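hi! just following up on the protien thing from before. the input was this:
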Amino acid sequence: MNGTIAPLPVPLGEAISAVALLAILVGMSLSVKRQVGSQRVLLWAYAWTLTSLHFVLRVLQAHAGGLLNFTVAADYSAIELSGIVFIASSLFREEDHRKRHLVIALLGVPLVVHLFATYCVDGAFWVRAAAFALAFFGAAALCYFASPRRTFTQIACASSLGAIGTWGAWHNLHGDSTASIGIVITLAYLMCGVFFWRLYRRRSLGVITVTGGFVAWAALFPLTAFLFFHKSGHTIVQDFWNMPRLFVAMGMILTLFEDKSRIVEQAKTQALAENLLLQRLSQITSRLLTGVEPTALCGEVAAAITEASGFRRAAVFLIGESRKLYLAGMNGFTPQEAHELEEHWGRYALELLKQFCERASKGENNSLHLSDEEDQILIPLISRRDSQIGCLYLSGSKVPGGVAPSEVAKLEGFASELAVMIENIRLHQYLQRSEKLAALGQLVAGVAHELNNPLTGIIGYADLLGGEVKEERAAKHIEKLANEARRMHRIVDGLLRFGRHGDSAARSTNLEVALRDVIQLREYHLRAQGIRVDVQVEPMLLPVGIAEDALKQVLLNILNNAIDAVDESAQREIRIRASSRFGRIAIQFDDSGPGFTDVHRALEPFYTTKPVGKGTGLGLSICYGILREYGGEITLANIQPYGASVLIELPVAVPQPDAVPSPESGQDVLSKFVPGL
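and the predicted 3d structure came back as:
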């Protein structure tokens, strides 16, 4: 043991009392671990077991004889490993077994090798130096790569550990291991105090006691070396050396009780918050049941979630008429964050949202964890019919440990109820609109039938009078009368088309060809007005199950409305998209006009915002009647910040079975064999 010192043996009585006390601490730690289930407490029990082994080995040194060097190496190994286990228990907040075991192996194995090479192998200077350097360079690497962002403190600690490793390796090469052993023990327990304070970060009695006890524990070894080398003759009883250990042990017990009390208080606070959340959400649900527009309450929903849950920020996204997400309500976001959020999620259509939900990492039930670091959670709003209504976006936990799973589960339950409520309200509104339009259809159909016969007579007599009257001025008046009567007749035909009921035989029509014909019909006007039309049709699109003339009439009416809408806009643009969606053909018209004044009334007959004489208000109503006749749908929406969107969905044409050949007559059979018959 050249260049080293051996620890002083401990009297048997003092050792027995210390070991008994530490055994009690080990038992208490194991008992607490059984109740708490924390790996940190289990590591504390291991560390105190190693400390007890240290005292046992001190007693055995007086009777070790030829095994003295081995017991000394084992003694120092136990005390160094105890410090490393304490460090590993406080180094990570989460229960990560792999990281803690890696730290213990990376630091403990080289240091144990260093001690046994020092006391049990003569002249193994290179082994001592390499083991010591490996331990400190490993610690420097752990410190440097602890987080992706390199802070000044992180770089300074890594540099200091590397410098100490270099210094200790140089001393070990020259046969002096005493200083290196002392620096390891001192640094180990000093770091125990630093990491323990860094882990808890509170000025409670237990944390302060543990931190101070570790610092005093670290100071024992320089003090021991000072007394040994200066031969001061001072003798200090063993109980004095045990005081820092007692402070650490009792402080840990206090810290565990403090944690238990904090957990109870947090549970009470969480229960009150969850009850408040359920109360607020039940109030919102009651208001939804009264038929209030869901969009008007989404802001209150987000505010209730941030007020009564563990999330700082909440946003409610709904799927609009254009099948894209839009921000319906939010709370806790800055204007810049809200703009970025709306811009990001606004790109998601219904199909993309479903694909995203399938790929994302699912939580306990229906929630999706987007980012564990920022506690970003997405809860889809899915009704009982598995229809997607929208989603809840939650982020920013108020508590360091994250939002409790029970709280997320309650939010998932509310999301399901909210989705059902919104779907029911939308279905109710749709039924109201359908009933209203059906009643209007019956009314206008009856009126149209009553007006059709008189108009036919007026047109006929006007034509007769036009042929009999020779005076040019009177003939012009009669011609104008006939033209107005024909105009009225066209309006009546439109009313009949709107009010028509019954199943029409589905026919097969090529959508791309019909769309091209309609655009060519208005091509001159589009070019003259400088209106840009962007058309994108999905390749190999299946035929639609609607008559060609009916499809062209629908497309022409919607195109005319879009042309009128962009007539006074600075940017005159119409976008037409046709694609296959859920077994149906979807045609979407988007224009850069001012949008619909009232989306809910746009399909009503004679409702128009155009100037007098420019429109009758029957264009979209006629489209609605035609599409309903063929099993199609029409959906209207406004585009933010300006523009209107009209979405048409039509069924795919059903292939007709081949016609069965009719039985041939006798003359047809003979004509095959007798030419000219």
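Residues 51 and 79 are 6 Å apart (CA to CA).
Residues 405-468 form the longest helix (64 residues).
cheers
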